[in-house]
Structures are given as structure tokens and as C-alpha cells.
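PROTEIN SPECIFICATION:
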Amino acid sequence: MALCALLALNLSLAAGYACWLFVNPAIPPFHPSLLLVPVFTIGEFVYSGHYPGYGLTAPEHIRRICRGISLVYLLLAASLFLAKDISADSRGAVLLAWAFSLFAVPAARWLAMRLMESRSRWGAPVIIIGAGETGSAVIRNLRLNRILGYRPVAC
């Protein structure tokens, strides 16, 4: 999951910079320090308990992703403003990269989860204590809500 998010964040940075280059061709070249943004974002995801993320609903996943990405990009924008360096990267490119990241990271996470789920690599195995209608209802709900990350293995 972290590798997919890292790839999506790097692609978002490149896409934001490339798109802003069409708008403003006079922006300075891509600065390598921007590659710290994906690393810091993954660090924030780890800190906020996003990995592995079992038991989190889809809205909570998206909320944590958006909050983490926005925090890192906000700190980046503040550092660019405070530095006032002539070679600082364009704020428009950073803004576009942030917008692309908000869409690319949840999409990459969903795709990775679906791929791992098809090979039974996603989720924690759980044992349902109880039987009858209640046990089967719990199993049915867990299978319908695979994003929670719980795979019933026994009842």
C-alpha cells in the first residue's frame, strides 16, 4: 500500500509540474527537494495509523488520505513562501500536484487493495464467535465490506 501511494504521489508531482509548465513556461526546473513530499506524506500516513488500516471505513480512509496530503503540501507551501528563494519551485505547480495527489492516492490504494484482495493478501484473518443468524450476518457484512480488512476464516 505504501509503495502504491509513493508511486501515485511521485506521479502527481510530475503531472502537476508538467501541467503548470504549459501555463507558465518560465518556471524554474524541477527541484529535487520536492521529492521529499512523497516521503513525508508516507511518514504522515504511518503516523496516523493508515497502514495497514484494518477496521477503517472507506470515508475514514479518504479522510485520512486527504488530511495527510493536505498537511504535507501546506507545510511545503509555507516553506516555499518563507524561503522566498528565486529558484523555489512554482506555487502553481505545487497546487496542481496537491490536487492530483488527492485523486491519485485513493485511486492507487483502491487498485492495490483490489489486487491484493483477489489473492487473499489483504486483510486480517478473524474468527467469528457465534453461530446461527447472527454469525452468518456478521460474515455476510464483512464480505460485503472488504475495505474493513477483516477476512472471516472460521465461525
The longest helix spans residues 91-118.
